[in-house]
Amino acid sequence: MYGKKVRLRIVFIISILTIIILSVYIILKLLEDDVVYFKSPTEIKQSSENITKKIRVGGMVKKDSITLDNKKIFFIITDFKNEISVIFAGTVPNLFQEEKGVVAEGILQDNNLFIADKILAKHDENYMPPEVKESLEQK
Amino acid sequence: MMLSNLGFFSLFLGLVSSFTVFFCSVFNIKKNSLKLENKIYKFLTFQFFFVVIGFFILLYSFFTSDFSNATVYNNSHSTKPLFYKITGLWGNHEGSLLLWLLVLTSFILFFFFNSKNEPKNFRLYTLIFHQIIIIGFFIFVLKTSNPFDTLFPIPTEGLGLNPILQDPALAIHPPVLYVGYVGTSIIFASALAAMVTGYVNSIWAKNLKKWVLISWTFLTGGILLGSIWAYYELGWGGFWFWDPVENISLMPWLSLTALLHCISTLEKRGILKSWSIILSIVTFMLSVTGTFLVRSGILNSVHTFANDPSRGIYILIFLFILIFMSFVIFLIFESKNLENKKQIFFLSKETSVLINNWFMIYFLSVVLIGTVYPIFLDVITSEKISIGPPFYNKLLIPFLVPFFLFMSVGPSMNWIKTNLKFEMSYIYYFLLTLIATGITVYYLSQKNLLTIILIFSLVFLIIKTLPNFLKNNTNHSQNLSHLGFAMLMLSILFNSVTSTEIIKNIKVGDSFISKNEKITFKKVIKEEERNYSSIIGIFEIKNNYDKIIKLNPEIRIYNQPVIATSEAAIKTTLFKDRFITINLIKDEQLFNVRYQNKPFMIWIWISTLIIIFGGTFAIFSKKKNYS
Tell me: the pLDDT tens digits for B194-227? Predict the structure, then answer.
């Protein structure tokens, strides 16, 4: 019906398209495991399912909540509605202070305890992670 | 006050000259005369001249701390060291855009005076397309980000520059990066002009290659400076974080690298025309997209100076116009530049260039998806996510092995056709690689299979590249850059698998053991500088051989604005970096101390420099061919 050339071209285009769609699908599938979701303490309290994956929690460091021993740092993240205790062993950024915004990354132990493996760096004192700003504004 | 108005006026005159150049060029094409009008030269020089005046006025305002200028007020302070007063010019949104304009206008001037041997219409069209970009940026600066806004009453003191930007590497990082970014605008304009005039051929490719090399070399340099800065200033001991802002500089780099290989094929063989054009357009689009993402406040980082939505929207509209324009031009004029129907033999340099391009496009897509997907998801579902290193590692690293292997054999292929003969040297290369890999793996005691395969392929790449330096008929700048790239990958690999760190909260006088080293926190000294006060920790590191290394990490508390930064103390040797940072937590009783051993750190910088040397070498050797 069609010439050999046209058929070849159609096969070529279809195979290219399939490859592209397949690869984007695979990439997005892989992405599933590697994305880190951001939650506020309130969202964690309200969620019914258990979160077992790595997440980020953001809010304010509660006043007078930082304590430390020679290995770990303990503090509380609050969004002025709910709060969550955090245990962290690692370096804190310069701007990690009480009553300042913070974002911690790690794994949720239960609804009240968060084991962080990273506290994210910020670059200036006025800067607040957009996620934190939003979740604070919602209250 | 007067001066600022003069600066604004000068920029306005610059915009007027841009329009004049634009219309003169359009009329000149219509006239069909063979001569270029003198007017164009004149106004092109005026345009550059007015931007230079504006730039120097702003520079002078920074220099004299003239706080009647809003940009100076927001980003400078009278106690700031002079060097950072000057570099503070581009440490903010308005000033950095003025720098963009300066580089843009100087490049087109340079291009115009250097292209006298090329067809008249090609030059004029390049000028027209480039003027569209310049006019776009002029209006952007004048309308949304005027660097000459004045303040009244005049404040007595400025707000200061973010202290982590007060750093020598970061002071020259923006200009270097901008030369790279803005160079792609010439590539873009020239590609569209070549398309319109049917000039996509070997001569065009040969001339364009110089610009590709300039952009590529400077972009590499800019990325290197940014990484070095991140390494010692951010205090995490890493140099690449897969942060969106880093990714958007990597994306144009990847497409430029693809273009660099592709344009050589066009130059030598007259094929891959459309593909070269597409890459030229994509590269510039990625540069502008980068500007959009950084300036719109969608991404948050040191680079995001102010979040003004109108700026983001302006760049977005501008971007859409450019994409639409290039798309239309590409569709209309594609038939004018017909591909030479030449068969590509599967064992040839053409094939290896194509393979290189496929890999580059794959790497580019991965980085693009990783950077853009979170933004889309946020807009569509308001779900906030972030994508970290595991994603990139999983998707990129497995593909590096075949990439390295192709890279080792590609350069020794011939154009058109390679006759593969069995040579004894192949066996020698293979055995040599096997032995070298064996020794390395044993020495580093690596058991991970992927790491071993990666080391093998990289060692093979190095062993295959080195003999090329002895041959006369090979491209030495290419050899240099390839060797640098192989060394870079190898150092990053060694560095990432052998780095160790230990984090403790300790008091003065305490000590701890890391591997076979004893680290003692001797004491704390406090010092007052003009624009900051610092707390310096004195540490001693003692290893088995009783050699003592002193490291003095510092916490600086800047007075304007009040920000604490930690200055890492780094002891660099040929084989490893010792890296220590301290942080205050709450009171001054306990210090948060982080000690890291980072092997082969300096080789990461050295090998990137070798890549840059390769590029520089190519730029100058090409120039020789001209004269």
Answer: 999 989 889 999 999 999 999 999 999 999 999 9
- The region of weakest confidence among A8-17, B118-127, B289-298 is B289-298
Q: Strand B500-506 and strand B511-514: pairing?
A: unpaired
> Which CATH superfamily, name and number, covers A37-137?
Nucleic acid-binding proteins (2.40.50.140)
pLDDT band at B586 (very low <50, low <70, confident <90, very high): low
pLDDT surpasses 50 at B59: yes
ipTM of the complex: 0.73
**Helix-helix angle B38-63:B120-144, to 10 degrees:** 30
> What confidence score (pLDDT) does residue B382 get?
75
Using a CB-CB distance cutoff of 8 angstroms, which residues of chain A are in contact with residue B370? 31
pLDDT at residue B315, rounded to an integer: 83
Answer yes or no: is B481 within a domain. yes
Domain assignments of chain A as residue spans, ordered by start: 1-34, 37-137
Residue B395: list chain A partners with CB under 8 A: 27, 30
Distance of CA B434 to the CA centre of its chain: 35
Q: Note down the domain range covering B559.
A: 500-600
As a whole number of angstroms, the distance between CA B614 and CA B620 comes to: 10
What residue ranges of chain A have pLDDT lower than 50?
124-125, 139
A69–B contact, CB cutoff 8 A: yes
* Nearest CB partner across the interface for B391, out of A31, A71, A73: A31
Cβ distance A94 to B562 less than 8 Å, yes or no, reads no
Q: Is A92 exposed, middle or buried (0-12, 13-18, 19+ CB in 10 A)?
A: buried
Q: Which of B505, B519, B557 to mutate to test the interface with A (most CBs of A within 10 A)?
A: B505
- C-beta separation of B238 from B361 below 8 A: no
B535-571 burial by CB neighbour count: b if 16+ within 10 A, else e?
Answer: bbbbbebeeeeeeeeebebbbbebbbeebbbbbbbbe
